[in-house]
Structures are given as structure tokens and as C-alpha cells.
Amino acid sequence: MAARRDGRIRMTVLGGYLGSGKTTWLRHQLHRGHFKDTLVILNEAADAPVDGTILGEVQNVLVLAGGCACCQARGELVRKLREICDARSGLNSSEDRIQHIVLETSGLADPGAIVEAVKGDPVLVHHIVVSEIIVVVDAINALDQLRGETLGRAQVEVADRLVVSKIDAAPDATALKRLLATLARLNPGATMSASAHGSAVSVPEYDGAEPEPLAEPSQATSKSPIFATTLVLDSTIDWTVFSVWLSALLHARGDDVLRVKGVARTPAGRLLLQSVRKVVQSPEILPDQNDRLDKVMVVIGRGYRAEDLQRSLQYFAVAERA
Amino acid sequence: MCANCGYPAAPGHWTDAGMADAGERMRARFRRARVLNAILRPYGLTAHDGGVIPGVQIATLSGSHEIVRDLTEVWVAAERLAGAPVDPLDPRFVGAGGEAT
Fold first, then answer.
1. What's the confidence (pLDDT) of residue A55?
2. Which residues partner with A146 through β-bridges?
3. Least packed by Cβ within 10 Å: which of A66, A165, A217, B74?
């Protein structure tokens, strides 16, 4: 992967529920030569680092055991990352420097909280940019977890990429289709892929399958359902207006707006924008090409009316001329 | 670090991305101040960006003011000065069907 022009390390956060197959998937990716020049950080909630042994053949593995990096061990994670950044800054530009970190979270972690920890640290924000959140979803157990666990849902909601694992072991095809449809409803902005024993397989068709009605009863919170809204950035809404509007929206409604993702046209080119709750990742300039996602922003959240978003944005666009 | 004001150079707020050169950045700052002014006016606040120092000045009509670095801080300051958060989904912004009044 090409280094960023600003010299910051890219970080991929790999999340997923307990036993969903994160390490298996990662091991296979490393075996296939993906994530080259990458430091792998494993976080395990338990004290005994099992995953570190599984990934033993990879040289660059750092184990962070004895606490989940999104909560109790957050300080430890930040300290380790700072050490890595310090060591890297001390190297000559001619030496091989780490360009990429893969952080495999514990199964209990909310990847969103880890992104917040990195973005919120005054040192790390200069050194690390979170480039992707990959969440592994277990084809056998995920439906149950999504029904009963708010954490499972939180993980799926913040993903950029969902990997449905153990697809060959899924007990029945209807339930699998139902799971895929549910994932697509929970996080319409994420790309979906499938894997069996860690290697990529094609995603089964799930057209027409009904998503699981993941509504209230098992939900500990009484929050309203999550939905996705697509905003069109037409010629009246330029990047300046949009950024003013979105920053205000995230300030006022940051707990309800879970995810924003899309591509805006700016004077500097196509800008990829994504946010996880109140945290907006550094926008990235994309190569110039037409894409169906251009000038479209997907907003995933709850607690507001979908049509109000576009209306409010339109108001901001014309307010200046009023 | 900026030698004049002492602000450490940060990687840049996300809202500052997207401008190709210094001229465009400056134009975008002025334009942003105009948009902010229009949005903050009903709350009894003004926004001013003279383009000389980094940051935006948010002021109340009675004269108290704050200089903030980026748009995230703008809304925090606006909430503090106005006593309530500026919510884009407030009926005043969505009720008129996009018509600015």
C-alpha cells in the first residue's frame, strides 16, 4: 500500500465479536502477502495471549494482553502506539519505516472507541490515521449476537468493510441470507465480503431476503431504529457549506449520527469523507474518476427524520444569500 | 508552531481539507464566515474571520467573544455563548422547506 503523502502511518482496525474468526482471517491475509511492511498489534481481553501464538510466524507482532483496548487498556494502547511512533520518528528516511499498522481488537471492543482514542490523542493524531475499519461477522452465530448484544450491533455499524466468516459452516442457507440482509440494513455503507477458513469466497446472493427485525425488546436501550439516508450534494451545496453543516450536525447530534460516508467534489479533487460518531477521519483525496458515489453522502443514524437532513442542508446552502 | 500566535501546527481540521492552494483556502475561509454568520445570527451571535490570524472569532451582540481554531470549536463556543446548541435539525432550519428567512 502506498504511503500517505503526509507521512502518517495508516492503521487498519480489525474488529468483530468474540470467536468471529478475526485472527484466522488475518493470518490468511498475512499468508497471502497482504499487509506487507505492517506491524500487527493484537489486543486480547484475557491475560493469556493465544492469538499471538497463532500468528507466531509473522515477525512483526506486538501483543497487548490483559484488557480491552477500547476501555480498560486504552491507556496502554495509546502508550504502545506512542512508543512505536517515537521509534519510527527516530529513523532515517532511508531506513525501512512502518507504513501500516493492523490492530486486531479483542472481541469485546467497540472499534469506534479505538478510533476515538487515536484521534483524540494529541501525539498520535500527528502520526497515525485510521484508514479502514474491518469487522468480521460470524455466519453461524452472528444473528443471535445481533439480537441479544448491543455490542455486536455497534461493531457492525461502524465498519467500512464487513467480512462474513465461516460461510461454509453456516447451518442453513435461509438464515445466512437473512444475516446478509440484516447486515446490509444495519450498515448500508459498508462493502461486504465472505470468507471460509480465512480465504475469500464469493458472497451468496441474498436478494429478497427479509432482514431480521432487530427491534426493541432485546435492546437494552429504548432508542429508535437506525436507518440510512442518502444526501445528494448538488451544485448549490459545495464543500464549504457541507462541512459547516456536518460539523454542526455532529456537534449537536453526534450520538445519534453513527456514520457518515461519501465523496465530495472539492477544488482539490474528489474527497473521501468518513466519520464514526463524532470523530471525522482525515479526508483523503481520491484519484480523479467518475463514480456513482460521487457527490453522495450516506448518513446512518437514528432519532431524526430522514427528510430533515436534506432540508436542513439546503437551508445552510441558501442562508448566506438570504 | 505559528511564530505569531503560538498555535501548534496540527494535521489540519477535516473541514480545512479540499482546497488546492492558498488563495482557495482564503476564499473558503471568508465564505465559511459568511455561512456561519447567516446560521448564527438568529442565535444572537456573529462570526468573523479577517483572514489574518488563524481561527474564527465568535461574538455575542453584547460584545463577549471567543477566538476558536476550527469548526468543531465554533459550535462548542456557540453553544456556550448562546446557551443552547445550534442544532441543524432544529425546526427553524427544516421547517421552511429549505427557504431561508
1. 64
2. none
3. A217
How many structural domains compose chain A?
Answer: 2
Residues A57 and A106 in one domain: yes
pLDDT at residue A247, as a whole number? 95
- Residue that has been written with the C-alpha cell 436507518 in this structure: A227
ipTM of this predicted structure: 0.87
CATH number at residue A150: 3.40.50.300
Query: What's the mean pLDDT in A91-107?
Result: 83
C-beta of residue B32 within 8 angstroms of C-beta of residue A245: no
For residue A162, the model assigns a pLDDT of 93
Q: Which residues of chain A neighbour B31 with C-beta distances below 8 Å?
A: 240, 320
Closest CB from A247, A281, A313 relative to B75: A247
Q: What is the mean pLDDT of chain A?
A: 82
Sort strands A161-165 and A191-196 into parallel, antiparallel or unpaired. Answer: parallel
Domain match, A294 and A172 both: no
With contacts defined as CB-CB under 8 Å, which chain A residues touch B28?
239-240
Please list every residue in chain B whose beta carbon sits closer than 8 Å to the beta carbon of residue A267.
Answer: 18-20, 24
Q: Is A209 a member of any domain?
A: no
CATH code of residue A269: 3.30.1220.10
Residues of the domain holding A264: 227-319
C-alpha cell at A92: 532515517
Please report whether residue B90 resides in a domain.
Answer: no
The Cβ of residue A210 has, within 10 Å, a number of other Cβ atoms equal to 12
Q: How many domains does chain B have?
A: 1
What does the pLDDT look like over A119-129, one tens digit per residue?
888 888 888 88
CA dist., res. A144 & res. A146, Å (int) = 5
